[in-house]
Amino acid sequence: MFSKVLIANRGEIACRVIRTAKRMGIATVAVYSDADARAPHVRMADESVRLGPPPASESYLNAELIIDACKATGAEAVHPGYGFLSERERFARALDKAGITFIGPPPKAIAAMGDKIESKKLAQKAGVNIVPGFLGDIATTEEAVKIAADIGYPVMMKASAGGGGKGMRLAHNEQDVRDGFEATKREGLASFGDDRVFIEKFIEAPRHIEIQLLGDQHGTVLYLGERECSIQRRHQKVVEEAPSPFVTPAMRKAMGEQAVALARAVGYYSAGTVELIVSGADPSGKSFYFLEMNTRLQVEHPVTEEVTGLDLVEQMIRVAAGEKLGLRQKDVKLDGWSVETRVYAEDPYRHFLPSTGRLVRYKPPMQSDSVRPEPVEGLAFSSSGKRKRRASTSSARTAGGSDVQVRVDDGVFEGGEVSMFYDPMIAKLITWGPDREAAIDAQVAALDAFEIDGIGHNVDFLSALMQHPRFRSGDITTGFIAEEYPEGFTGAPADEQLLLDLAAIAGMVAAVHEARAAEVDDQLNGPVPQPSERVVKIGSAEHRVRIKPYDGGTLAVVNPGSGSGAGAGELIDIIGRWEPGQRLLTATVDGRRRTVRIRREGRGWALTARGRRHKVQVMPPHVAELSQHMIEKAPPDLSRLLIAPMPGLLTRLDVEVGDKVEAGQPVAVVEAMKMENILRAGRAATVKATPVKAGDSLSVDQVIVEFE
Question: Which domain holds residue 136?
Answer without folding.
Answer: 132-201
